[in-house]
Amino acid sequence: MTERVLELTGLNKWFGPVHALKDIHFSLNRGEVCALLGDNGAGKSTLIKLIAGAEQVEDGQLCIEGEKIPTHRYTVQQARQLGIETVYQSGSLGEQQPVWRNLFLGRHLHNRLGFIDHKEERSQAAQLLKTLDFRGVGANIDAPVSSLSGGERQGLAIGRAMLFDARVVILDEPTTALSVGEVEKVLCFIEALKSQGRACLLITHNMNDAYRVADRFVVMDRGSIVAEYRKSQMTQSSLQMALLDAVGRGA
């Protein structure tokens, strides 16, 4: 199997006269966590939407594990089929539905007669929560999502990506508005993704979180990638200085 799971070459995106993404060259490797950094409006959200199939690629090439993907037919559904899962800040969860139903929302398991296999879904949900080390309310597969903490909700959304064997997991500000303890849970979930050999693209404004879990840092500014650093090359304080310098050069 190839080490590189995702590669973007010469990617451009326009919204009317606005050139939102400019000649993006980007890649992700198996078992790598890459933090995508930059100010609001830098183009991070647009980039992840293109990778996730939520926005159409107008110009450029997308490859998944070395295979060129026809971008004019690329959708959210196809992205999922190719192993790309996106966990947005909201988690996209059904608040009043139990934990086990949320895990299979829109992608139910069916028995040989074609009916939804509730028993198998519950069994797989229970096993996944053990793997994720959910405790308290979150460990109950029948608990409504509304009763879960913020960290547990993010963990559930990440667990859904694991359940459907995602190659690439995109995390959009997963620790925003969480307590210190809840942030720790989410960071442990991200480390679990890495240990399973999954590639992870992390969008965050929190440098502590980024430095804790990421192997590589890619900086965006006004639609362009302006810098790239490896964790092995710098301390957290030098990364912060380099980030300010990279964005400042583009000003």
Specify the helix fraction band.
25-40%
Into how many domains do the coordinates divide? 1
The CATH architecture can be given as: 3-Layer(aba) Sandwich
Strand content: 25-35%
> Could you name the CATH topology?
Rossmann fold
Low-confidence stretches: none
Mean pLDDT: 88
Question: How many strands, what sense, and barrel or not for the largest sheet?
Answer: 6 strands, mixed
Secondary structure: number of strands: 10
Name the CATH superfamily assignment.
P-loop containing nucleotide triphosphate hydrolases
The strand line-up of the biggest sheet is 6-7-8-3-9-10
Give me the number of helical elements.
8
Task: Describe the 3D structure.
With 251 residues, this protein is α/β, with parallel strands linked by helices. The mean pLDDT is 88. It is 34% helix and 26% strand. A hairpin with a 2-residue loop joins strand 1 (4-15) and strand 2 (18-29). The protein has a single domain (4-249), classed as Rossmann fold (3-Layer(aba) Sandwich), CATH 3.40.50. The chain has helices at 44-52, 76-81, 99-103, 118-131, 150-163, 180-195, 207-213, 236-249, and strands at 4-15, 18-29, 33-37, 59-64, 67-69, 84-87, 168-172, 199-203, 216-221, 224-230. The chain has a six-stranded mixed beta sheet with strand order 6-7-8-3-9-10, sandwiched between helices. The protein is globular and about 55 Å long. Helix 5 (150-163) runs parallel beside helix 6 (180-195). The termini are far apart. 37% of the residues are buried. It contains eight helices and ten strands. Keywords: ATP-binding, Nucleotide-binding. One of its GO terms (molecular function) is ATP binding. Pfam families: ABC_tran (PF00005).
